[in-house]
Amino acid sequence: MGTSSVLTRARGLLHIQNQLVRECLAELLSTFILILITLSGSAQKVTSFETKGDTLTAYLAGALAVMVGIYTAGGVSGAHMNPAFSLCVCLTRQFPWWKFPIFVVVQTLASFMSAGAVYILYYDAIWHYSNGTLTVSGPRETASIFATYPADYVSIANGFLDQVIGTATLIVGVMGIMDTRNKGVPKGLEPVVVALLVLSIEVSMCANCGCPLNPARDIGPRLFTYVAGWGPEVFRWVEGRG
């Protein structure tokens, strides 16, 4: 009885009444999980010299991470996890504009934190693979674990168009899945279908720029690599990549 009373009291103290705070915490957690799994899949692939993972496993990690993120916070914040999606639901009047900058900051912060967690998790592997030098280009570069970079042949214009088309495909697909006027997805399986949508885009539109599809997914980890030792080169259209 005493233990039950203590637990009830603790739940009461930890319960957050403010709806915005609850939504921000949910968005922080879902985005953190999304980027943590996505970047870990990339880190495992790169640092193991593709002996414990390859391009397909990295794609699967990213797609399944979307599913986990939606299941984690979809009922509280909607699990946007992506500024592009937040913008879309604002434009369609399904989300208030005043929350948009707040969600973008939370999503970017969560992505930054996730990059830090992956760096800690794969710290020894990253330094072993890179021979003690953190670089953005070259045969032992490790910056691509965290952010996406263009292929050698991709111009700035083509890279921009690539991201517009890829992100638009994602948003249109998600909005179609959510639209109750369309052929419905079995209730509770929406996150699975969204994950399959993400996987389909990854396996078809990833060659040019790595297919981030999410500004926060790229900006947050890129900021982390800048402060963690990769330097300002992470923000340049690196020679030899584009």
Write the layout of secondary structure elements.
Layout: H1 2-14, H2 19-47, H3 55-73, H4 83-91, H5 100-121, H6 123-129, H7 156-178, H8 190-202, H9 215-230
Helix pairs in contact: 2-3, 2-5, 3-8, 4-5, 5-9, 7-8
GO molecular function, one term: water channel activity
Family: Belongs to the MIP/aquaporin (TC 1.A.8) family.
Subcellular location: Cell membrane
What does this protein look like?
This is AQP10 protein. Belongs to the MIP/aquaporin (TC 1.A.8) family. It comes from Pitta sordida (Hooded pitta). It is found in: Cell membrane. It catalyses: glycerol(in) = glycerol(out); H2O(in) = H2O(out). The chain is an all-alpha fold and 242 residues long. The protein has a single domain, classed as Glycerol uptake facilitator protein (Up-down Bundle), CATH 1.20.1080. Helix content is 62%, strand content 0%. The longest helix has 29 residues.
What is the annotated CATH architecture? Up-down Bundle
Largest sheet: none
Distance between the termini: 66 Å
Shape: globular
* CATH top level label: Mainly Alpha
CATH superfamily: Glycerol uptake facilitator protein
Question: What is Rg?
Answer: 19 Å
Low-confidence stretches: none
Number of domain units: 1
CATH topology: Glycerol uptake facilitator protein
Number of strands: 0
Structural class: mainly alpha
Number of alpha- plus pi-helical segments:
9
Secondary-structure element pattern, one letter each: HHHHHHHHH
* Residues in β-strands, percent: under 5%
Percentage of helical residues? Answer: 55-70%
